């Protein structure tokens, strides 16, 4: 992708003092004269940053400002080992709220709206990002946080929430509970902002239909502000990323080479204005592509495709690389399945066995037929023969946060 002149200027400005401000970057770039970065090609030669770098800098080694300028920290939910801590200055917090307010506007949310926020607050960036953006917009924030579904539904009705912010897993759970309780006609939701995990078309359609809302994917990660650095627009074709704050690259995850626009790879982000913890060429491990051309909505900011998966989500079975997105495509193609699935990979009697559990309303013979169909489609599309097992609707676990769907039990 062509770097915009303003982005290059901002990057050069950032690089000109970064070694003095940050011991982390002084060490990282010790053999590089950063004043040599004059073009996009020069920039593309700089080394990547990784989550492991941030972990190594624990607790505040990443800070590029004196401690007195730090007004807040957030921490990303590392599954193992040392957490990652990201410091924010007042400007960082303000910039993030500004980006988030833009996201709301992009989704058609106004000061008249009542926004029910179900992602978690605290160290996790999600809740506070949704909150700050809502306040910046002038809308009414209802800071529920996750869980307590009964109270969620009560407030949703009594406060007449018009916007729901949630993970896709929790949005689905709420949609199912609303239908179970038969209170759909007492719900005023019209828009959903859904973030922080990849989700299938089928799941999207179910949530949109059951809640009667228009859904917008929101993008972000704790290391780079949090959610709100980009969002889908009304064209529903990818997500715009705010280019005055973040520069996007997509690289081949194996070689690190930039891939042409339109081609799938790993998203690499550079912050352009961040003070507390600037990140240069940070590898997100999110798989996506840059969508070439202008968006019909008129917004000029770059678009990335819906997140297709993570580089670390891939499983290898019988020598075939399998991504969750491919499994979702199989589920999507198989008539009679709902959106929910779970994959178990086991090693038995010297053989890898991949079992796909999926939900269906069908019973008896019809259920068997769907299992056979899914097996065929899976084999055709992915090249591995699975064991397909149908279960009833609601039998697979629902989650208030992210749902784990692939369990590799081989190791
Ligand atoms: Zn657009």
Explained architecture:
With 411 residues, the protein is α/β, with parallel strands linked by helices. It has helices at 5-21, 23-28, 40-43, 51-56, 90-106, 126-137, 149-158, 168-181, 201-211, 324-333, 364-382; strands at residues 70-76, 84-89, 114-117, 140-143, 163-166, 191-195, 214-221, 226-232, 239-241, 246-251, 265-271, 282-288, 290-291, 303-304, 309-310, 315-317, 320-322, 337-348, 351-360, 387-392, 406-408. Strand 1 (70-76) and strand 2 (84-89) form a beta hairpin. It has two domains: 90-310, Rossmann fold; 314-408, ANL, C-terminal domain (GMP Synthetase, Chain A, domain 3). It contains eleven helices and 21 strands. The strands form five sheets. Strands 4-3-5-6-7-8-9-14-13 form a nine-stranded mixed beta sheet. A four-stranded antiparallel beta sheet has the order 10-11-12-15, with no helix packed on it. Bound molecules: zinc ion (ZN). The site of zinc ion has 6 residues, from loops.
Task: Give a quick set of tags describing it.
binds zinc ion, GMP Synthetase, Chain A, domain 3, 27% strand, alpha/beta, 2 domains, Rossmann fold, nine-stranded mixed beta sheet, 411 residues, four-stranded antiparallel beta sheet
Summarize the structure.
This protein has 411 residues and is α/β, with parallel strands linked by helices.
Kindly report the spatial arrangement of strands forming the biggest sheet: 4-3-5-6-7-8-9-14-13
Bound molecules: zinc ion
Question: How far apart, in Å, are the first and last alpha carbons?
Answer: 40 Å
Inertia-based shape: globular
CATH class of the largest domain: Alpha Beta
CATH architecture of the largest domain: 3-Layer(aba) Sandwich
Number of helical segments? 11
Radius of gyration using CA atoms only:
22 Å
User: Mean pLDDT, rounded to whole units?
Assistant: 94
Total E-strand runs: 21
Look up the CATH topology of the largest domain: Rossmann fold
For the largest beta-sheet, the strand count, sense and barrel status come to: 9 strands, mixed
Structural class label: alpha/beta
């Amino acid at each position: 992708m062509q770097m915009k002149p303003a982005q290059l200027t901002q990057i050069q400005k950032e690089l000109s003092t970064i070694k003095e401000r940050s011991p982390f970057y002084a060490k990282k770039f010790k053999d590089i004269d950063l004043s040599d970065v004059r073009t996009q090609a020069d920039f593309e030669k700089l080394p990547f940053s990784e989550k492991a770098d941030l972990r190594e800098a624990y607790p505040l080694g990443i800070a590029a400002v004196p401690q007195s300028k730090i007004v807040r920290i957030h921490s990303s939910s590392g599954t193992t080992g040392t957490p990652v801590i990201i410091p924010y200055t007042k400007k960082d917090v303000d910039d993030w709220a500004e980006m988030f307010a833009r996201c709301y506007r992009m989704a058609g949310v106004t000061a008249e709206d009542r926004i029910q926020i179900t992602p978690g607050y605290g160290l996790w960036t999600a809740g506070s990002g949704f909150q700050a953006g809502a306040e910046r917009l002038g809308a009414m924030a209802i800071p529920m946080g996750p869980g307590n579904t009964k109270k969620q539904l009560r407030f949703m009705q009594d406060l007449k929430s018009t916007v729901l912010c949630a993970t896709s897993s929790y949005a689905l759970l709420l949609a199912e509970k609303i239908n179970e309780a038969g209170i759909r006609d007492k719900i005023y939701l019209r828009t959903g902002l859904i973030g922080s995990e990849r989700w299938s078309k089928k799941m999207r359609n179910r949530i949109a239909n059951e809640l009667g809302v228009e859904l917008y994917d929101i993008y972000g990660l704790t290391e780079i502000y949090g959610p709100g650095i980009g969002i889908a627009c009304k064209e529903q074709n990818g997500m715009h990323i705010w280019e005055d704050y973040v520069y996007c690259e997509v690289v081949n995850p194996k070689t690190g080479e930039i891939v042409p626009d339109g081609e799938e790879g790993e998203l690499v982000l550079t912050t352009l204005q961040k003070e507390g913890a600037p990140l240069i060429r940070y590898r997100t491990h999110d798989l996506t592509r840059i969508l070439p051309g202008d968006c019909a909505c008129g917004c000029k900011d770059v678009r990335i495709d819906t997140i297709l998966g993570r580089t670390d989500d891939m499983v290898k079975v019988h020598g075939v690389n399998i991504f969750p997105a491919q499994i979702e495509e199989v589920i999507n193609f198989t008539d009679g399945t709902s959106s929910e699935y779970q994959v178990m990979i086991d090693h038995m009697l010297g053989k890898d066995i991949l079992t796909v559990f999926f939900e269906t309303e069908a019973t008896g013979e019809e259920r068997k037929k769907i299992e056979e169909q899914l097996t065929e489609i899976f084999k055709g599309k992915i090249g591995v023969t699975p064991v397909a097992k149908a279960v009833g609707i609601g039998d697979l676990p629902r989650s208030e946060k992210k749902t784990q769907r692939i369990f590799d039990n081989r190791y």
